[in-house]
Amino acid sequence: MQLPAVLWTCVIFSLCLADGHWFPQVNIPHIDKLVHFMMFLGFSLACYKMRMTHILVFGLALAILTEILQGVLPIHRSFDLRDMLMDATGLAVGIIILYWWKI
After folding, report:
1. Tell me, what DSSP letter sits at residue 49?
2. Residue 58 CA neighbour count, 13 Å, CB half
């Protein structure tokens, strides 16, 4: 993995595993889903030097791992399958952008 990908992975872990009480309460419906989408879109783009299949595999593993950890750690967070869906959607859009960009 290249440095941008490592740093972006650290950002994802930091945000996903931070205590839920640290985040301000905002009255914007589904803002957390948009954040998940953007984090994993950014992950895909940060991994631009990797093979697209590796981006997908590592990204999905990261999405699954962070959601499982949110469900089991005492951080006032919970497992949410919809978050994983938005993570995967962000990954897919990023991979499509990278594919389009490299042509």
Report:
1. T
2. 19
Can you state the angle between helices 3-16 and 31-46, rounded to 10 degrees? 160
Q: At 91, which amino acid appears?
A: L
Residue labelled with tokens 């631009």: 48
- Residues 6+ away with beta carbon under 8 Å from 87: 36, 37, 39, 40, 59, 60, 62, 63, 66, 67
CA separation for the pair 7, 39 (Å, rounded): 12
Which DSSP state fits 76?
S
Query: C-alpha 23: how far from its chain's center?
Result: 17
Does the global pTM surpass 0.85? Answer: yes
Diameter over CA atoms, the chain: 45
21-70 pLDDT, tens digit each: 888 888 999 999 999 999 999 999 999 999 999 999 999 999 999 999 99
- Beta-strand ranges (E) seen in 2-91 are none
